[in-house]
């Protein structure tokens, strides 16, 4: 989502806009969103970005992914992208999951009580939407529709129609996805604004997607977990993001970087604005900040 006339206070990226090399050394780790940030317009890791991750790894700078996707599907895609050995941490489902890939330890939490997502689905009854819950890296849905086709294509995820979808609603879950036609997002957000049960919160995460999850879940959970595991303050971590679910992570990190294609809130929360994901913005910014070899 390209923002125009945002009026942000963050610094537009150029090598001369960065602090001195000695000051930049206070940043000792990097965490990045995937879609719209690390990935290009084809939901792929470009050659420039992959080589930048290789250089970060060679320099001993830990790298973590923070995504609304789940850990299982992220790590499947990491193999396709050729970056499995270059990622130290994966925070999935907006912070509900955290995998320390160095030790293999996985933590999961912040689940919504059984039955509550059924109430959410009933609340949206009558709207042209599709519902989905992720299980083992697959988007399960009670009825497959064309509303999920676009995501299946660009996000490279698996979707499966589950005739026993109710079983998921009868057990605690981390997140419920609600898909719509982008042209109908205003209608969906208007309905969502009427939801007043504090046990679950709503967030728009794409032009055709809103997500319901625990109100205390956001990507700062992964940022904090990464910092604690490394024995660092969050001020020593650089975070990249673009969408609404990246805003607090970018704001909380020692150096917050929003993409040019980012939403207003995330750009306003950032310290720097990187070039867009379509122009290797992550690689260009990180490579310059850390003085990495040019690919």
From TrEMBL:
Alphabetical keyword list: Hydrolase
InterPro entries: Cof (IPR000150), HAD-like_sf (IPR036412), HAD-SF_hydro_IIB (IPR006379), HAD_sf (IPR023214)
EC annotation from Swiss-Prot or TrEMBL: 3.-.-.-
GO molecular function per UniProt: magnesium ion binding; phosphatase activity
GO CC term (a single one): cytosol
Pfam family for this entry, one: Hydrolase_3
Protein known as: Cof family
Organism, scientific name: Propionibacterium ruminifibrarum
């Amino acid at each position: 989502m390209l923002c125009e006339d945002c009026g942000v206070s963050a610094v537009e990226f150029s090598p001369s806009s960065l602090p001195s090399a000695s000051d930049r050394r206070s940043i000792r780790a990097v965490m990045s969103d995937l879609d719209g940030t690390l990935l290009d317009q084809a939901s792929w890791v470009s050659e420039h970005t992959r080589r930048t991750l290789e250089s970060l790894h060679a320099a001993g700078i830990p790298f973590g992914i923070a995504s609304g996707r789940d850990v299982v599907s992220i790590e499947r895609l990491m193999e396709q992208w050729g970056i499995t050995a270059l990622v130290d941490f994966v925070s999935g489902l907006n912070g509900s999951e955290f995998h320390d890939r160095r030790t293999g330890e996985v933590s999961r939490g912040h689940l919504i009580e059984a039955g509550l997502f059924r109430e959410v689905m009933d609340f949206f009854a009558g709207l042209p939407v599709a519902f989905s819950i992720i299980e083992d890296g697959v988007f399960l849905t009670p009825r497959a529709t064309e509303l999920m086709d676009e995501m299946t294509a660009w996000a490279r995820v698996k979707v499966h129609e589950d005739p026993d979808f109710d079983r998921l609603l009868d057990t605690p879950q981390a997140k419920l996805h609600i898909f719509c036609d982008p042209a109908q997002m205003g209608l969906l957000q208007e309905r969502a604004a009427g939801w007043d049960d504090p046990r679950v919160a709503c967030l728009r995460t794409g032009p055709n997607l809103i997500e319901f999850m625990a109100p205390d879940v956001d990507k700062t959970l992964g940022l904090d977990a990464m910092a604690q595991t490394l024995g660092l303050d969050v001020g020593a971590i650089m975070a990249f993001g673009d969408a609404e679910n990246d805003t607090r992570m970018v704001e909380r990190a020692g150096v917050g970087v929003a993409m040019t294609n980012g939403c207003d809130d995330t750009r306003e929360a950032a310290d720097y604005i990187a070039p867009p994901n379509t122009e290797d913005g992550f690689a260009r910014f990180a490579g310059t900040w850390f003085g990495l070899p040019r690919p």
